[in-house]
Known about the structure:
Layout: H1 3-9, E1 13-18, H2 28-38, E2 44-47, H3 56-68, E3 73-79, H4 85-97, E4 102-106, H5 127-137, E5 141-146, H6 157-169, E6 174-177, H7 183-195, E7 202-206, H8 212-222, H9 228-237, H10 241-262, E8 266-270, H11 275-294
Parallel strand pairs: 1-2, 1-8, 2-3, 3-4, 4-5, 5-6, 6-7, 7-8
Helix pairs in contact: 2-11, 9-10, 10-11
This protein binds flavin-adenine dinucleotide (FAD).
Amino acid sequence: MLIKDLYKNKKPVISFEIFPPKKDGPIETIYTTIEALKDLKPDFISVTYGAGGSTTKKTVEIASIIKNKYHIEALAHLTCVTSTKDEITAILNNLQENNVENILSLRGDFPQDPNFEFPDPLHYQYAKDLIAHIKKSHPFSIGAACYPEGHIECSSLDKDLHYLKEKVATGTDFLISQLFFENEIFYDFKEKMDKLNINIPISAGILPVLNKKQIDYIVSLCGCHLPKKFTRIIEKYEHKPEALKEAGTAYAIEQIIDLLSWGIDGIHIYTMNRPKTTRKIIDNISTIRNVLIEG
Ligand code: FAD
């Protein structure tokens, strides 16, 4: 099923994000994760894509297994900035042959390796270039990323929203947001989107924080704001891993309940391949989820 049609028929759409095992890791480990996530009845599961080709084949393989073995809708992430048009076409064909119908179209980050050889000139500069390619050649439903606090490279949120509008106009069907820890930031962002007539469905990306190292890394990557009530939790339980995990999960649940009451189209949980935490979240919102679906 095309994910754009899921959003038409159901609210909220609940989705999970998983990542492939590291380059030399056995692929089987991810099947245990999917197995544990499947009874939570997600509307779709997305699989991240390793920029620079580190886990690219695994993304296609895992998306295919999600769709064809577990019969859950799959969303394959795909980044483009390091790739040639031929490489992207081969991946699109491979996904189509495997019955995967949905792609999260991303530019991707520039690899840190100074010797990395990019196509010269670049075949794709921005996510919208990949979206334009897909739109012309394949019948996928196309998702894209958005950033409630602005993308880290962009000088202002307004500018980033301007580019988001272009990206949507190129052929994006739905958006998944960068994680955030302050719902009001997301609501302000959505208001700005509405004013610009960017009105495709959006899922809010939610990360249950599990340890301090993880949060430090994430802040360094995306520069997201950490509200006081969140940093208090981190500081208080920094050296008590079980307590931090429990408090981080409770924080994510509270965020989701508020987003659902607000009327969000979808919730996208960055599972970090931790099905137990994801199960706790879904168990805690199950009644609300059912009430909303039944209308
Ligand atoms: P774009 O939309 O192309 O934007 C990139 C930057 O360019 C922004 O600063 C934007 O403001 C600017 N820009 C856009 N258009 C123009 C223009 N016309 N002129 C000038 N500036 C412009 N990364 C991975 O490697 N693998 C993954 O699987 C992955 N999954 C992700 C999933 C989600 C939900 C999110 C939010 C991010 C994910 N990322 C992933 C990270 C993403 O690849 C990076 O954030 C990347 O830096 C930007 O990708 P994008 O598709 O948002 O880029």
